[in-house]
Amino acid sequence: MTTIFGVPSAVLYGQLLLGLINGAFYAMLSLGLAVIFGMMNIVNFAHGAQYMMGAMGAWLLMNYLGIGYWWALILAPLIVGAISIVIEVLLLRRLYKLDHLYGMLLTFGLALMVQGAFSNWFGSSGQPYSIPQALMGGRNLGFMFLPNYRAWVIAASVVICLGTWYVIERTKLGAYLRAATENPMLVQAFGIRVPRMITLTYGAGVGLAALAGVLAAPVYQVSPLMGADLLIVVFAVVVIGGMGSIMGAIVTGFLVGVIEGLTKAFYPEASTTVVFAVMAVVLLIRPAGLFGSKLEAAQGQPQSSLSATAPSTLTQTLIFLALACCLAAAPLVVYPGFMMKAMIFALFACAFNLVAGYGRLVSFGHSMFLGSAGYVCGHAAKIWGLPPEFAILAGTATAAMLGFVTGWLAIRRSGIYFAMVTLAFAQMVYFVALQARFTGGEDGLQAVPRGMLFGLIDLSLPANLYGFVLVIFLGGFFLIMRLVGSPFGRVLKAISDHDARAQSLGFETARYKLVAFVLSAALAGLAGSTKAIVSQLASLTDVHWSMSGEVLLMTFLGGVGTLYGPLVGAFIVVAMQNYLAAFGQWVTVIHGLIFVLCVLAFRRGIVGELIEFWHRLHRTPPAKPAVLHNVAVAPQE
Amino acid sequence: MTDGAVYVLETRGLSRAFGGFFAVNGVNFRLARNSMHAVIGPNGAGKTTLFNLLTKFLPPSAGTILHDGEDVTRLSMPAMAKRSVVRSFQISAVFAGLTVRENIELALLREHGLAWNLLGRIARHRGVLERADALLERFGLSEYAGTMAGSLSYGRKRVLELATTLALEPSVLLLDEPMAGLGHEDIGRVTQLIREAGKGRTVLLVEHNMNVVAELADTITVMVRGEVLAQGSYAEVSSRADVMAAYTGQTHE
Q1: Contacts of A544 (CB under 8 A, 6+ apart)
Q2: Across the interface, do B97 and A306 touch by the CB < 8 Å criterion?
Q3: Is residue B160 domain-resident?
């Protein structure tokens, strides 16, 4: 048997073929994302769910109506596209003038709802979907065996991609589309109905995802979560390629697939993380992406939720003391286990809010800090036998370092790109945690000892443990309170308002963002370390992307950019998990629904709306600008 | 005084291309110390691009920029601010989510060594508070001190931006169309403020309003199609036929 660099050639060709297949799906999905983003300025977080709906649609048509593959190839994209058109008209349309992040949050909520509902109905395990009769079998090419269906997928996806490229770049319809992307008002003035065009574009982009789903059904298992992880890789592809070009999306998609295939052949351990490593390198060398021209898209002004001047130092101190008393007395009436869990998540959410609320850097990857700190803390306490204070220190320091590295790379992009980059890095950390030996893989690190704090306080006693968590939470919260009220916090807020102006006043804005990000990561790590000691467990749940989603939910529900909002949000979400546990996957659907409602109805969150109400009651002048305007972003090369 | 120091800012062969189009093409420009210098020209002449190059908002495609005789072509915008070269923006740039007072205090933080203070409180630093009070008073903003900057009227935002910029006590003040979007009564007021601000420092402004330019500027540079067409006093420049032609849209060819 021939070998190439020590790898049997059959294995190499097999992996290359698999890489091409994966690449075909990356290309089709990132193409749809690029078209939708170009037209609507919305990062369609539901893209993975819609891909899944295509595959599930084919499976449902087959199993319930007896409709086969070839009809499903036409019907499923049409049905999913039609549903998405309804969503665009009813929901997305309201967001075009707002910050892109709201579109991302709304579609994220929709994705949670769809994936949760499908998991409930059909279970989260995979369903097989058989290859159509005509494409069974395969042929021997001499150097490898090529299954017919795989050849079909590659050929079909290339035709679909090039067809889309042709329509957009070479036809009159495509010219209108590109013109409307540049200047919708002007095109509208020419008598073209831009809103209808936007609606149809969204439908087409989603239909493309569903079509990819149908093609994927016989290759992969059909399951409700099949699109979730795929989407994160596609985001990395989008960051690598740059969102600006259609051909760029196609080429990058296939390229990344092939790189993955090659890695699987030569160094299988890195195959899940190589995409994210490539993304990191591209961010270093060419932040705008391989095919990207503009570094950032123009951004709408987000609604400032910090609408009022902060209360005086005295009021703040009084509220803080009242909070401390309430939390200290709470175990008398509330189950202490619940309180501790809620306080840990509240600290996590407050840490997240430090960058998301005050720095307006909305990270979709904060789970990596919570989770990695938990692992390191657990490992330090269990294997190295360190006392809890040092174990927690080790966990926190790890998170801070991880925050420094990822933040240093991620702050090269802002807005939605920042969100995608952080999400991708978090996924990389997740895969490392899944494969590394010291994390215990699927089982996690169990039976982490609580130990003696400072050699004196036995943390296995419930009262001691509660006091310990209380002190950590209050300490962390107090630190955040001071940071927000400090000159540094003022600069951070100013940067999020108008980065270029802050630079012109002499502030190196990138450094401020990085310091805020590292502080946030460290505090999230403190929460994660404490969680490992309290729950005596460090597991994959804490590094999974759904944890990043949860902290987003807590913060946005409570009120992003308000001091107490994340605290309130965390308590509500943790309570929901506790009391609604019996509903299983429906909790995910409820989470998704809350996201959608938050974005549509109360963007300031609970605490933000209360503050607003209070000020309206006292006739304080409205604090935020009524008119949306564009923020100047310093162009860079 | 050395030759380099006569000119506060100087460009040599400065160019900036967008795609294949040269918005600024080989411009040699000199800004004399303590002058009040205006750059004018028809729309698309490259005034704003030149301005953005001088203020480091854009990197140049070719050429060098000197400040006090030193090459600053590669420096960042914050680094220029630290060299006491501070710009304003065309679309009034205030921090909408901060109050008027907080906007002004922000500009004072660096000088008072508070820019990297992570845990303290501005309210404890009397020096900052007193200077902020004085600036609010001087610019007639005292009664709006607690108002969110985002909810100010357009004219007041302009005044606030000027106040914030001057809080840095810059030696070179670069103003990008300070009168853009202002009503008649605000123009007189802002002109007065700029005139006062110009005492003892160098001011460069890009401006469309010829009355303001005639009133304020001692030197005028006329740009057309990315190049410098003429430079001199208002009387010299306005008497030249080619300048008038450029403005009325006639060509010489």
Answers
A1: A367, A371, A430
A2: yes
A3: no
Cβ burial B3-42 (10 Å sphere, 16+ → b, else e): eeeebbbbbbebbbeeeeebbbbebebbbeeebbbbbbbe
Find residues 509-548 of chain A whose CB sits inside 8 Å of chain B.
509
Same domain for B181 and B124: no
Residue B62 sits in which domain range? Answer: 3-92+170-248
| Nearest CB partner across the interface for A500, out of B57, B102, B109 | B57
Q: Do B121 and A313 touch (CB under 8 A)?
A: yes
CB contact under 8 A, A503 and B82: no
Q: Is there a contact between A505 and B148 if contact means CB atoms under 8 Å apart?
A: no
A chain contacts of residue B99, beta-carbon cutoff 8 Å: 309
Q: Tell whether B158 is covered by a domain.
A: no
In a domain, residue B174? The reply is yes
Residues 465-494 of A with CB under 8 A from B: 479, 482-483, 485-488, 490-491, 493-494
Q: Which domains does chain A have, with CATH numbers?
A: 3-94+133-285 (1.10.3470), 336-574 (no CATH)
ipTM comes to 0.90
Q: Are B146 and B204 members of one domain?
A: no
- Nearest by CB to A621, from B78, B102, B147: name it: B147
CB contacts of A494 in chain B (<8 Å) are 95, 98, 103, 106
Same domain, B48 and B126: no
Beta carbons of B115 and A491 less than 8 Å apart:
yes
3-state DSSP call for residue B251? coil
Total structural domains in chain B? 2
Do B202 and B101 share a structural domain? no
- How far is A470 from A339, CA to CA, in rounded Å? 9
Backbone angles phi, psi at B41, to 5 degrees: 155, 160
Asked if residue B161 is part of any domain, the answer here is no
Tokens 């503009």 sit at which residue?
Answer: A294
pLDDT tens digits for range A586-634: 888 998 999 899 888 888 888 888 888 888 887 655 444 333 333 333 3
Indicate the residue of B95, B119, B168 with minimum beta-carbon distance to A482. B119
The secondary element (H helix, E strand) that includes residue A114 is: helix A100-122
Same domain, B11 and B52: yes
**Do residues B77 and B107 share a domain?**
no
- Flag if B121 and A486 touch (Cβ within 8 Å): yes
Distance CA A238, CA A283 (A): 12
Please state, in angstroms and rounded to a whole number, the distance separating the CA atoms of residues A188 and A195: 9
CATH number of the domain at B177, please.
3.40.50.300
Residues B75, B105, single domain; the answer is no
pLDDT in tens, chain B (253 residues): 444 457 899 999 999 998 888 889 889 999 999 899 999 888 888 888 998 999 888 899 999 999 998 999 999 999 999 999 998 887 768 998 899 999 999 999 988 888 898 888 888 888 899 999 999 998 889 999 988 888 888 888 888 998 999 999 999 999 988 888 788 888 888 888 899 888 889 999 998 888 888 888 899 999 888 888 888 888 888 888 887 777 766 544 4
Residues B132 and B239 in one domain: no
Contact (Cβ atoms closer than 8 angstroms) between residue A554 and residue A343: no
Task: Give the distance from residue A174's alpha carbon to the nearest chain B alpha carbon, in angstroms.
Answer: 22
Cα–Cα distance for residue pair B203/A599, rounded to 1 Å: 46
Enter the pTM of the model: 0.89
- Which of B128, B148, B152, B169 best probes binding to A when mutated, by most A CB atoms within 10 angstroms? B148
